[in-house]
Specification:
The complex is a heterodimer of chains A (371) and B (99).
Chain A: E1 3-10, E2 13-20, E3 27-32, E4 37-44, E5 47-57, E6 61-67, E7 75-77, E8 89-91, E9 97-99, E10 104-110, E11 118-123, E12 126-130, E13 138-139, E14 160-166, E15 174-179, E16 182-186, E17 194-195, E18 216-221, E19 229-233, E20 237-240, E21 248-249, E22 259-264, E23 272-276, E24 292-295, E25 303-305, E26 323-325, E27 333-336, E28 342-345, E29 353-356, E30 362-370
Antiparallel strand pairs in A: 1-2, 1-30, 2-3, 4-5, 5-6, 6-7, 8-9, 10-11, 11-12, 12-13, 14-15, 15-16, 16-17, 18-19, 19-20, 20-21, 22-23, 23-24, 24-25, 26-27, 27-28, 28-29
Chain B: E1 2-6, H1 9-15, E2 21-24, H2 31-41, E3 61-65, E4 68-69, H3 81-84, E5 90-94
Parallel strand pairs in B: 1-5
Antiparallel strand pairs in B: 1-2, 3-4, 3-5
Classes of the chains: A mainly beta (371), B alpha+beta (99).
């Protein structure tokens, strides 16, 4: 019997939501690590019971937890994230040089084939890797040191590396994104990197078409088309079909093209989802209506999905790591809000319902399809 | 010397202890030596009280002993005799702040 496990990271602990393949009734287990900020949890594609979790607080710093039984029990692994060599400086908010300082792990991306290999995206922006199940972490310094690192500047949420996408057809090709530096690609497993921001236009930076400096909020990829990426930027929804060499705007008829999340339908590589958010400073849905927008044409033409979502007096946000899809037929899609709701759709977004309603503010959502 | 250490609740959970812990400190009983012994016996606490490399105290952590605030003292500061003899605990305290 197939099923789904949804890993939810919140400001005050982690929760695991489970359902059978119908995705009608859900059980909520948790909180795990109550009181701690859980920025991200993710399972290994090679062993779904192997989970990794980023645990932290401003008081006690960063920890990494690992589970080998699907989240029933956890063990802390290494939490030492030390930049390679002398880390140097990036730019601070006021444009002055600022030393690189490790703050937290935003995102954990397990290898597609090895449960012991995991990539970690951290703040201040850098990428680390473990190949021993989290017992030790080592930086891939080629990212920070490829040449533009000293020009990177934090977004309002910090200088965070928040997205890691591994090409299923070539695991040495990895795409990452940093707020507010932009998108980057390696073709050699993380040794060397290049900025891939051609075509982005950010009117809020001194050079709107600069090589780096763009506040990319999220990237998404369909596993069958690894050269096509979708991007939710601070403003603008974008796509590339050449591995990031050039980007085109696909915001089309969205009510606002600001937002944080973006994801792709598991079985339809041209069906994508975003949640438009009012900005620059409000960061809640326009008109108090929580609407997921779906494009079945790879962008530009969008339809609002509202059935089961609050359509009045709703002023929550949906943060960048808080949307995920399952692999069942039909595709399930899930997202969490800063109001503590997790919404799920078992029919590719046509209808929604809350599968958890009263959690702490949701930071991340990851769906696992279980066989 | 067997030194008693009282930890904040979250660190007790991490260390999987219900109450205060006792650590064996060889040589002078200083702030740094007690923290070394604590991290030796409970490696999960490495990085949660002080930085892994610099050993700088985390900003929202403070150290007390016998009603003295030792947070700003250097790591080689000797702890009061009552702590060294196990009569009083060394307190690791998380700041009462935040939401």
């Amino acid at each position: 019997m197939s099923g789904v496990r949804v890993l939810v990271g919140t400001r005050k602990g982690a929760f695991i939501l489970t359902s059978d393949g119908k995705r009608d009734r859900w059980e909520i287990e948790g909180p795990h690590f109550g009181g701690w900020e859980m920025y991200h949890l993710k399972g290994s594609p090679a062993d779904p019971n192997r989970l990794y979790a980023s645990q932290g607080t401003g008081w006690f710093g960063q920890l990494i937890q690992r589970s080998s039984d699907g989240g029933k029990t956890w063990e802390p692994v290494d939490n030492k994230f030390v930049y390679d060599g002398t880390p140097g400086t990036h730019l601070w908010y006021d444009g002055t040089p600022h030393p690189w300082e490790f703050k937290r792990v935003w995102h954990l991306e397990p290898s597609l084939s090895d449960p012991d290999t995991v990539y970690a995206g951290v703040e201040d922006a850098a990428m680390f890797r473990t190949t021993d199940g989290g017992r030790s972490w080592h930086e891939l310094p080629g990212l920070r040191n490829h040449g533009t690192g000293s020009k990177w500047q934090p977004g309002a949420g910090g200088l965070c590396l928040h997205t890691i996408l591994i090409d299923p057809s070539n695991p040495k090709r990895i795409f990452i994104a940093i707020s507010a530096a932009g998108a980057f690609r390696t073709d050699d497993g993380g040794e060397t990197w290049k900025p891939i921001n051609q075509g982005l236009f950010s009117k809020y930076i001194p050079e709107p078409t600069a090589e780096v400096g763009h506040c990319v909020h999220r990237l998404a990829m369909h596993r069958s088309r690894p050269n096509t990426l979708f991007m939710q930027k601070h403003w603008d929804v974008m796509r590339t079909d050449d591995g990031g060499e050039s980007w085109q705007k696909i915001s089309g008829n969205l009510p606002t093209d600001f937002g944080f999340v973006i994801d792709v339908h598991t079985h339809e590589p041209e069906t994508i989802y975003v949640v438009p958010i009012k900005s620059d400073s409000e960061h809640y849905p326009p008109d108090g209506k929580l609407r997921v927008y779906r494009s079945r044409s790879g962008g530009n033409e969008w339809e609002p999905l509202t059935k089961g979502l609050p359509q009045n007096d709703c002023y929550v946000n949906v943060l960048r790591d808080a949307m995920s899809v399952d692999a069942l037929d039909s595709c399930g899609i899930y997202f969490g809000t800063t109001g503590g709701q997790v919404y799920g759709s078992a029919d590719a977004g046509n209808t929604w319902k809350p599968i958890a309603e009263h959690l702490p503010a949701v930071l991340s959502v990851e769906a696992q399809t279980l066989s | 010397m067997n030194v008693r250490v009282e930890l904040p609740a979250h660190l007790r959970t991490l260390a999987r202890v219900a109450d205060e812990v006792a650590v064996d400190v060889a040589g002078a009983v200083t702030v740094g030596a007690v923290l070394d012994a604590l991290e030796r016996d409970y490696p999960v606490l490495c990085g949660t009280i002080r930085d892994h490399i610099t050993h700088k105290r985390r900003p929202f952590i403070r150290f007390f002993a016998c009603e003295e605030d030792l947070s700003l003292e250097p790591p080689d500061t000797a702890l009061p005799e009552a702590v060294a003899l196990g009569a009083e605990p060394f307190l690791v305290v998380g700041a009462l702040a935040g939401g």
